[in-house]
Amino acid sequence: MTLVDRRGALKRGAALAGAAVLPFGVPTLLRAQSETIRLGHITPRTGFLGQAGEQGFRAAALAVEEANAAGGILGRKIELIAEDSVNPATAVNKAQKLIERDKVLCLIGEVSSASALAIAEQAARAKLPFFNTGSNSDALRGQNCNRYLFHIEGSNTMYTKTIGTWQKQKNLIKGARWYFLTADYAFGHDLFRVSSRFLTENGGIVLANDMVPTNTADYSSYILKLRSLKPDYIYLNLAGVDQTTFLKQYREYSLPFPLTGGVMDTISFWAAGLENLSGTWQSLWYHGIANKDAQAFARRFLDKYKLPPDNQAWGDYVGVRIALQSMAETRRTDATSIIQHLEKGATFDLLKDRKGMFRPWDHQLLQEMYVVQVKDKGKSKDKWDIFDVVESVPGAKESLELIQPTQAENPCKMA
Amino acid sequence: MTSCPSPLLLQLFSDPSLLPLLLEQIVNGLLVGAFYIVLSLGLSLIFSLGGVVNLAHGAFYAIGAYLAYEAEQRVGFFGAMVISPVLVALIGLAIERLFLKRLYGKDPALGLLFTFGLAMVAEQSLRMIWGTTGLPFSIPDALRGQWMAGDFIYSYYRLTILAVSVFAVLGCWLLLNRTPFGLVVRAGVRDPEMVRALGISLNPALAAIFALGVGLAGLAGVMSAPLAGVQPAMGSEILTATFVVVVIGGLGSFWGVVLAGLLVGVVRGITVFGCPPGAEASMYLLMVLVLLFRPRGLLGERFEKFE
Question: I want to staple A82 with a disulfide (CB 3.0 to 4.6 A). Which of A41, A148, A398, B114 is the partner?
Answer without folding.
Answer: A41
